[in-house]
Amino acid sequence: MNALLNKFTFSPEILDVISNCKSVWVPTTKAELYEMCFGGDRRFNVVYDVPGKGPVKECDVTRCKNGAAVNYVEDYMRRRDPDCMRIADDGPTDKPRFQDVYGYPFDKLRKETMEWFKTQELIFMPFNSGGNTYGYPSMLICPKNAAFFAFALAHLQGFISAAECEGFKPRAFIYVAPPFRHSHFNGRQVCVHNRTEDCHEVFSYNLYPGPSAKKGVYSILLDIGERENWVTAHASCGRIVTPYENEIVIMHEGASGGGKSEMLQDITRLEDGTVLLSTNTVTGEETILNLGETCHIEPVCDDMATCYPSLQNDSGKLVLVDGEGGWFLRMDGVTHYGCDPVYERICTEPDEPLCFFNMEAHRGATCLIWEHTLDSNGQPCPNPRAIVPREKVPNIVTEPVEVDVRTFGVRMPPSTAEDPNYGIMGMMHVIPPALAWLWRLVAPRGFKNPSIVGGGELKSEGVGSYWPFATGLRVKQANLLLKQILDCPNTRYVLIPNQHIGVYKVGFAAEWLSREYLARHNGRIKPDHLEPARCPLLGYALKDMKLDGQKIRSKFLRTETQDRMGLEGYDAGAKILTDFFEKELKKFDTPDLDPIGKQIIDCFMNGGTLADYEAITPTKF
């Protein structure tokens, strides 16, 4: 037995696997783990024998100059399936239970999984769920020929040398058993969660790390938080420094594709240095802005903001730290050289090998983040990814931060009077805490989400926009979010659209410009610059907005002023949005809901006005 295994505390079940498997590899360095990814070659095919099917190739792993590039055979495996979570235990949950879905207890499959592990060469890799500073001791067990998965997880959560793990007792496990996807689940991605009193287990029956190494760890943190009454928010966060050296901390939340990574990116400029605000989807007319010096961004976190109780103070603001050791960055917006100089530089010439997914790869060549793998339809995969260790990110913030403004991003479709839709949000809306909570309960997934399978229609990502990763009760998470909001009265709330503002295609320009505006105003917008939005769900709309002396026209601030939208188109879109909220909020109206939460939801159901929401939770101007 590998002597390093003596440093860990394992159950008899795991000890039995260790004693009977072909071999156990316990990496002590990331370099050692990296070499395992290729099986001694420059390109390695990850293949498994599946009963009744024979050898099945899952992906290939190519050794490039700048790291390991992973490409899956199936389009379906190149992004996360939002319906992949199953609950094995009988604890409180609103998620599908394994036995209810498949008709037999998970114990049977668990035993088969452990028996399969005994036929494999295995990697046992310790890590900390939540990062090495504040995280919880955890263990990955996966087949050696899936070493790329362990390498990816080492980047995502931070590597721990097994040699330094004396007395390490895992609070969580991730087990990776890929062939069961074919033998038991008809090719579907499935992650089974088993929660016990002192351990959270994730059984990953697929090799895309999104549902397991990434969001599976998120599930672990949410489960622990649900037990200890705190939240891991689905958010990016940055300390924004204006050209005049004023500082503001902005936390940006939203469903996958809602602009979290983009909040930490510099404004994209055209070749002449100007900024493209919008393109009219009907006429093709462009709106261009001239911006001088813009804000400097000091990133805090990219996706998982851990809000531990021990960090909170008497500032009246939410305090958070990053819950990850590395960032799983989507590069679909990087389509050519020069799109994102910061990450292009990090990924093209890293000082250690990185891990790439769904990107064109050639042995011995540099993997370029703007060359995306083609799906079977001949179009670039919409979910190309690179994992960047957070210490490689320039100007990274390592200490806890107090949040001045919490923004919430939503992917909006084009909308006109002729073809009305819910894309009625202006460039930025200020909302009272009660509405901030409602938006976090509903969390619209929005228009053409590139991160997941089936990202076209309007659906809810669920409470907190992290609900796909939570294993417990919906109402419990709703109550925790409400408590978090009420406990932080000095943090302000804003809504920001991306992709479209009415008839105008804006991409993420609205988000970047709103960030500049908020920073220049220290997160405070005076009431005389605001007016109630026509749709109460949108809180306050801006009367006016000026950046570098340039006025943003009213049609970008209040979409009902657009000629092609008008009041009729706006009201039709508002009805789509309101009806959607009504459908989703009914799920939370239970006896376990916090009384203030019930008051807020009743306010909405009764056609509440902005003044009604303000009476419950006043806006901090």
Describe this structure in words.
A hairpin with a 4-residue loop joins strand 9 and strand 10. The protein is α+β, with helices and mostly antiparallel strands. The protein is built from 16 helices and 29 strands. Strands 11, 12, 13, 14, 15, 16, 17, 21, 22, 23, 24, 25, 26 and 27 form a 14-stranded mixed β-sheet that branches. Strands 1-6-7-8-10-9-5 form a seven-stranded mixed β-sheet. It is about 25% helix and about 25% strand.
Q: Give the % helix.
A: 25-40%
Return Rg in Å.
Answer: 24 Å
Instruction: Give the end-to-end Cα distance, rounded to a whole number of Å.
Output: 63 Å
Shape: globular
Mean pLDDT metric: 94
* Percentage of residues in strands: 15-25%
- Class per helix and strand makeup: alpha+beta
Number of helices: 16
Largest sheet: 14 strands, mixed
- Uncertain ranges: none
Number of strands: 29
